[in-house]
Amino acid sequence: MGEVSLGSVQTAWRAKAGQRGYNFGFNLKTLLPRHLDVFIWAQGAKDNKVAPREGLAVTAFFPPVQIHSADTQRLFEGNVGVQEIHWDKPGSHTGAAHAETVLSDFPRINAVLVNHSEVIGEHGRTLEQAAGQLKQALRTTESGRTFKFITICVGEDRATYDKGTEAAAAYVQNQVRTILTLAGVTEEDMARIGIAYEPRFAIQVGDVPGVPPTDAHIAKMGWAILQAAAEAVSVEGMSQMFALQYGGSMKGPDDKTAPVQRFVGPGNSVDADLYNGGLIGTAAKDPKVAAAIVNRVVPVPVQA
């Protein structure tokens, strides 16, 4: 589409803020790969009211090895997603889940993560492969089923971040433009797409906590991502996205450095109408923390 002004992006995105609501994803990559652990998490989510309600959508993403357990449990009331699908059609891709297989064999799975930001670079994932994942997620239909929610992860590494916000924005904008363009994304497709900004150095690894960037940097990156999406597709298409999420050591509301209310929700310190949700990894392993995060942003209605 060519260059798009930031002002037009901000106007279009903010105009639909009320329609979009809040959207949180739980990346449960740290759960043990056992059937029981999926059920324990799902029961905890149910007990603590981690569930969709007016103005709130929630999705739990599970690794491919756990999707049978995730599909058969009936406790978690939100969307259920798979963390990864392969960028090619079914074949001898050991350990990979394919869009066709997921949609045909697991009727509860309706969401997918594309391209964890840390797999670009450190683990050799290319933007072409990420675009292939997105294309498979968008174009695959099995028994009338498609993926309803597709979240694309993008983000810079520490070395790029240290070069300054402008360099980081250019780096991540290239990710967004390349993935959307190579996947052949149309304006109509954009309603099924959300983007999560995951600065790689901010993601907790094991017991080593990540450190989120400054609020100003996170705000700049969010608008840069939306601008790149508008340039790759259209301003109207960009405004149809179901979510722009922040992911990178977001914690519960009582955390001193990275509480959810710093990034998302009324009175957040990043930008009032920018991020409408979070993609949460380590903190979401505990359903009580996941509940505290979403309930801080969209409180559970008081029963009359």
What are the key terms here?
304 residues; alpha/beta; TIM Barrel; eight-stranded parallel β-barrel; 37% helix; globular
Give an overview of the whole structure:
With 304 residues, the protein is an alpha/beta fold. The chain has one domain (6-297): Alpha-Beta Barrel (TIM Barrel), CATH 3.20.20. The protein contains twelve helices and eight strands. It has an eight-stranded parallel β-barrel with strand order 1-2-3-4-5-6-7-8, surrounded by four helices. Strand 7, helix 11 and strand 8 form a beta-alpha-beta unit. Helix 1 packs across helix 9 (215-232) and helix 8 (165-182) packs parallel to helix 9. The longest helix has 18 residues, at 165-182. The termini are far apart.
- Please state the second-level CATH architecture: Alpha-Beta Barrel
Counted up, domains total: 1
Q: In which order are the strands of the major sheet placed?
A: 1-2-3-4-5-6-7-8
- Write down the overall geometry: globular
Largest sheet: 8 strands, parallel, barrel
CATH topology: TIM Barrel
β-strand number:
8
CATH top-level class: Alpha Beta
Low-confidence residue ranges? none
Structural class: alpha/beta
Rg calculated over all Cα atoms: 18 Å
How many distinct helices? 12
Could you state the CATH homologous superfamily?
A: Aldolase class I
Helix-strand pattern: HHEHEHEHEHEHHEHHEHEH
Q: Approximately what portion of the residues adopt beta-strand conformation?
A: 5-15%
How far apart the termini lie comes to: 51 Å
Helix content: 25-40%
**How confident overall, as mean pLDDT?**
92
